[in-house]
Amino acid sequence: MAEPYGAPTWRSLTIKRRFIPDQGRVTYQPPQNWFTIVTPLLGLCHVEYPDGSGWHQTTLVVGDTSRLVNRSAMRLWRPPSGEQKFEVAFIALPTQHFRDYADEHPEVAVDDLSSLENPRVSDLVVAPMACNLLRAQEAKMGEGYALRAAHYLTAHLLHSHHGSQSNTSGLKPERLLLVTDYMRKNLAERITLEDMAKEASLSRYYFIRQFTAATGKTPMQYLTGLRIEAACRLLITSDELISQIGIRCGFLNPESFARVFRKHLGCSPLQYRRRNFELRPSPMW
């Protein structure tokens, strides 16, 4: 049975947090005339989504989003791994926001909102914003806050889509997903450019050019970003030793981990853990 979306607290957008127990399943039906963003808050899960050729599967981790509009139900479930809990946020925006914004900014207008749909895309804007929206909702922030947040999200989605469409010389989406999935699944290993090029079935030279055109980053820069994202998640959601987290995320030694982490975030892993300890998602119920 599909889970109801729940009565919205705000009119300009809605947000709901759900907990998926180990081996549990949730079926989610996007509301009509709303654009929905699904993003994990804690842990990972598998997602099944339909298209004209049947059901397809991908995996969402913290930092990923799945974007839907007027699509039939999607299924989310956790693998029987005994790993940490999984919490996910559902953010929904009225599709009218997109039409209103496109009227004011015709350069980013889209003919059909379904072109914004994506079963899995890393988004370092939307994913952290979900936690802020939940805290604002719990604090009973007013409709003005929700309207500003909805406007910001709408602008972000349209402009990021326009930017990706303006560059058609990069890797095709299916090849890009293959490579980024390979990176995520092997973060602890030594991944070379040759390994990634092989996943994309391209020569090393051509792969670097195509990947950089598609993402705006070199493959190694992108891989380092994924390692830092994974480390941030583990620093907040686990009690593992920092040195062990560095190894799990593919850094050769604690010194290398600390140096790269500070370069990206301006603080040490320990400082990041201390600053964000109080921001761990609270239980839903």
Automatic annotation (TrEMBL):
Name of the protein in question: SepR
Identify the Gene3D superfamilies for this entry: Homeodomain-like (1.10.10.60)
One annotated GO molecular function? sequence-specific DNA binding
InterPro entries linked to this entry: AraC_XylS_family_regulators (IPR050204), Homeodomain-like_sf (IPR009057), HTH_AraC (IPR018060), HTH_AraC-typ_CS (IPR018062), Tscrpt_reg_AraC-type_HTH (IPR020449)
Please indicate if the UniProt record lists DNA-binding as a keyword: yes
Q: Keyword Transcription, does the record have it?
A: yes
Pfam families (UniProt xref): HTH_18
Instruction: Enumerate the spans annotated as HTH araC/xylS-type domain.
Output: 177-275
Query: The organism sits in which domain of life?
Result: Bacteria
Organism expressing this protein natively: Streptomyces fimbriatus
Q: What keywords does the record list, in alphabetical order?
A: DNA-binding, Transcription, Transcription regulation
